[in-house]
Amino acid sequence: MKNITRRSFIKSSAISSGILLAPNLLSANNINKLNIAVIGVGGRGRANWSQVPNENIVAMCDVDFNRASRGFNLQPNAKRYKDYRVMFDEMANQIDAVIISTPDHTHFPATMIAMELGKHVYVEKPLAHSVWQLRTLKKAANYYGIVSQMGNQGHTTNGIRLIKEWYEQGILGEVKEVHAWHGKFNFRPNFYWTKPVSFPPPEHPIPENFDYDLWLGPAKYRPFNSAYHPLAWRGFYDFGNGMLGDWSAHTLDGPFWALNLGMPLSVETKAPNPMTKHGFIADESVTKFEFGSRGDKPPVTLKWYEGGEKPEIKPEWNLDKLPNAGMVMIGDKNTLITGGRPDRPKLIMSDNDWKEFQNNPPKKYIPRVGENKPVDEWIDAIKNNKLPGSNFNYSAELTEMAIVGSLAQRFVTKIDYDSKNMKITNNELVDSYIKEPVRDGWSYGDRLF
Question: 0.85 exceeded by the pTM?
C-alpha cells in the first residue's frame, strides 16, 4: 500500500448500506501483502495476529515485554514498542492495518489514533468500554473510510447464519422471549476471574518490564494489584464490562442479528450480593432487557443469567438439563438452542423431528465466509474493498446493547434508556458513565465529533 496515501484512499471511498464502495485499490497488481502493526502481543493478541501468516507484521506493541517475549521471538523482524503512540509517530507511513487486542478500557484510544491515520482496524471484543466510545468509533470508521472488524468469531460461522435464516423463514414463528446464561465464576489467583483478598485491593509490586501507567491508559490511577494484570481485569468495571460485556458478543450475537433487536428500552439487574461500591462484578445476577417492537416484529424480553443462575426448563423442551452456557430463542412454533457460542444451533424437538428437519433444511441464502475466521474475513475485505460482517456499523450496536446491560449490572438497578439521545433518563449517576472521564493525555475523538 505504499503507493496509496491515506488522503487518496479516503477521497475515493464511500459508505452505502454498510458496504465500502471504492475502486479496487488493493488489487493484486499493486499489493500482495499488508503491513500490519500489532497492539497487544500475548493472549488474544497472539490468537489474532497468528492468523495472518501471509502478511507482513512490521511492528509489535505491548506494555508487558515479559509476556510479549514469545510473540516477539516469533516475529524477530517486527519493531518493538511499549507505547503505541510512539509506534504511530515513528512508523505510520509503514503501516496499513492494525490488530488491537488489549483490555477493554484501552481499545478506544488505540483504535481512534489508527483510524485517524487511515489504518484499517481489527479490534478484539468487546469493541469499546462506553457507549460514547462506541458511537464515536462507528462515526470515525465511516468518516475515514477504513475497513473495520470486531473479533467475535461466531459472526463468521455457518451456525449464526442458520439462526438468522431459520428465523426469517418462519421456522421459529414469532419470538418474544430470549434467555441466555453463563456458568459460575471460578475465582482464583492468576485466573480469568480473580477476586482480591480485600477491597480496595492492596498495593502489590509492579512486575519488571511492565509499564503499569501505559496499561492504565485513560483509566483513573490506582495502586497496582496483581488481580488487574495480566488476566482478571474483566471483573473490575473500570477496566472491563464483566461477563456480559465479554460473552454477549458470542452468546447474544445470534438473537441480536436475527431479530434485529436494536437498543433496549430498559434494563434491570438483580443480584443477591452486589459489589457496587467496589466497582466489581457480583457473584451472580440476572439482567432483564426489554426491547420494543420493530416494524411488524413484536416486543422482546431478553434475560441474561450469570454466576450459576439459569432459566427454568420448560416442560415442552423435554430436556434434562441445560449446558453450562447457552441461549434459547422461544418462538410460538419452535424453540432454538445454542451453546455459549452461536456455531451449533439446534431446534428443541424430538430426535425424529430433528432428523427430518436436517434432511429437509430451509434455504441457505446468507453468504458463508469461513468458520470462526474473523481475521481472514477482515484481511479479505481490505484487499477487496468491502466491509466484513462485524464491521463497526454492526458491532458497535451489538456492544452498545451489552454495555447498557453492564451498567445496570454495575449499579444493580433498573435503567431507562433513550438510545436516540444516548441518555439514561432515570438515573443521573449511571448516565454519567455513558461517556467516562479520562486521564490527561488520553482524550481522543472529541475534536472530530
Answer: yes
